[in-house]
Automatic annotation (TrEMBL):
Pfam families: ADH_N_2, ADH_zinc_N
UniProt entry keywords in alphabetical sequence: Oxidoreductase
Protein's UniProt keywords contain Oxidoreductase: yes
A molecular function (GO) term: oxidoreductase activity, acting on the CH-CH group of donors, NAD or NADP as acceptor
Protein name as catalogued: 2-alkenal reductase
Native organism taxonomy: Bacteria, Pseudomonadati, Pseudomonadota, Betaproteobacteria, Burkholderiales
Residue ranges annotated for the Enoyl reductase (ER) domain, each copy included: 17-328
Length: 331
């Protein structure tokens, strides 16, 4: 029998998540039933939204049940099939979670159709993070040539795509990231016009210098003091795509200091969950995959080896220790 190593959520965090919230299990795989498919997962995606699912609180999705495999997107290869539509060797993506193998009836599998794109990128720029960036920018911010678009967590899996797409739309793009190295990458490699290091000092003044004509569109991943600084630099009729509030994922309150500016500047602020907009996924994925394959959309990955190291990598992600998309290699 084959052992399937898994990471289970075994307790709810109290404040910051810790390694004690997780447990490494190693059950044996059952034999495949008729109509089932066995997939060997090659890569696991780690994403900030997972932290919210660890809490037993009301949210846009049910909490992760205790003593079950942590939720997460994977890419891998079919190694055994008793399903007529799937053959060994098929490359697929699915939501198998934090485990080395997945068994499916085929309904939750998606084929990876473009071999020009590395498999891991279907978890990043050509996957859910890329579609998140595409939707928030194109459906909420709706950038116009000559406008200024700012994006927080600019070196991350979502923010890096937002900025590059905004540049392609003819905008001036200002990133916000943590540390000189990340800011240099955002400007020199991704092609942003400027990047503000939120760790270096007064974010408001730095944004004012980087965006002297104000900010017309903002893609929010962080919240807290970063959002407060952006709010003070917004133009009238600006738009905010609210994707994440990672500064508050440990349960700390993150009050907004200048909410009246939403009215003063007639700001459109819209929170969104990309899985509620599946109608745009085919168009977005085609554009993103084509751009990655053509070398027109750049990306960076932090790859951790081994399912046993997924919890530590995830905790590092929540603290901003990763650079680009955080992935776990499972083979």
């Amino acid at each position: 029998m084959t052992i399937n190593r898994q990471i289970l959520l075994v307790s709810r965090p109290k404040g910051e998540a810790t390694l004690d919230n997780f447990h490494l299990a190693a059950p044996e795989l059952p034999e495949l039933g008729e109509g089932q498919v066995l997939v060997r997962n090659f890569y696991l995606s780690l994403d900030p939204y997972m932290r919210g699912r660890m809490n037993d609180t009301k949210s846009y999705a049910p909490p992760q049940p205790l003593d079950t495999v942590m939720i997460g997107a994977t890419v891998g290869e079919v190694i055994e099939s008793r399903h007529p539509e799937w053959q060994p060797g098929d490359a697929v993506s699915a939501m198998f979670g934090w485990q080395e193998y997945g068994i499916s009836d085929g309904s939750n599998l998606q084929r990876l159709r473009d071999s020009r794109v590395p498999m891991s990128v279907y978890l990043g720029a050509a996957g859910m993070p890329g579609v998140t960036a595409w939707y928030g920018l194109n459906r909420i911010i709706c950038p116009k040539p000559g406008e200024t678009v700012a994006v927080s967590a600019a070196s991350g899996a979502v923010g890096s795509v937002v900025g590059q797409l905004a540049k392609r739309a003819g905008c001036r793009v200002v990133g916000i990231a943590g540390g000189e190295q990340k800011c240099d990458y955002v400007v020199q490699t991704l092609g942003f016009d400027a990047c503000v290091d939120y760790k270096a000092g007064n974010v408001y003044e730095a944004l004012r210098a980087a965006a002297p004509d104000g900010i017309d569109g903002y893609f929010e991943n962080v919240g807290g003091e970063v959002l407060d600084a952006v709010m003070r630099n917004l133009n009238a009729h600006s738009r905010i795509a609210l994707c994440g509030m990672i500064s508050g994922y440990n349960g700390d309150p993150i009050p907004m200091k200048h909410p009246a500016l939403l009215l003063t500047n007639r700001v459109r602020l819209e929170g969104f969950i990309v899985t509620e907009h599946m109608d745009v996924w085919p168009q977005a994925l085609k554009e993103l995959t084509d751009a990655v394959a053509a070398g027109e959309l750049r990306y960076r990955e932090t790859i951790t080896q081994g399912i046993e190291n997924a919890p530590a990598a995830f905790l590092g992600l929540l603290k901003g220790e990763n650079f680009g998309k955080q992935i776990v290699r499972l083979v």
